[in-house]
Amino acid sequence: MDLRDIINSIYPISEKSMDRLLSCSLELGLPKGHRLLEAGKIESDIFFIKRGIVRAYVSHEGKDITFWIGKEGATIMSLKSYVKNEAGYETIELMEDSLLYCLKRSDLYRLFEEDIDIANWGRKLAELEFLRAEEKLIPLLFTTASERYRVLLERTPDLLQRIPLECLASYLGITPVSLSRIRAKLK
């Protein structure tokens, strides 16, 4: 997915502002298994996925708990690092060979001060990231594992081929055994 399309899908901006943002971007090719962000470290830059898939996870009691999966067009960031310049709690790992766009926080902050269009884009990006977190949290509280799996099948069926089942189970808030039972019932 082209960075211009990703930016405009968040909030459309003028061509002049777009050119300013694009001039600050860097395209990175990174291999499957690369850890883009490490828990306990500061990573305040923002990444967008051109091609590939990633997962964000935390380690707890010897287990990796996947809480977010992103694919083409998604934004990758440690909100804690970006907002507070403090070490993040998550690790973000590439699940496929990936192409990413990177925007440095220092460049973005400068552009936010210089260009109201880009500042509004940044505000909209933050709003969408908060909404994304809310949309993930609330279903975990009020829906069954089977319902969450059905939603995943409806919205992102390609994840079944692109992400290991243990990561998907963790993302759904269930064990791999429970995921296997749910999948068997739906066949």
From TrEMBL:
Pfam families: cNMP_binding (PF00027). It comes from the Bacteria. Residues 30-115 form the Cyclic nucleotide-binding domain. InterPro entries: cNMP-bd_dom (IPR000595), cNMP-bd_dom_sf (IPR018490), RmlC-like_jellyroll (IPR014710). This is Cyclic nucleotide-binding domain-containing protein. It comes from Barnesiella intestinihominis YIT 11860. The lineage of its organism: Bacteria, Pseudomonadati, Bacteroidota, Bacteroidia, Bacteroidales.
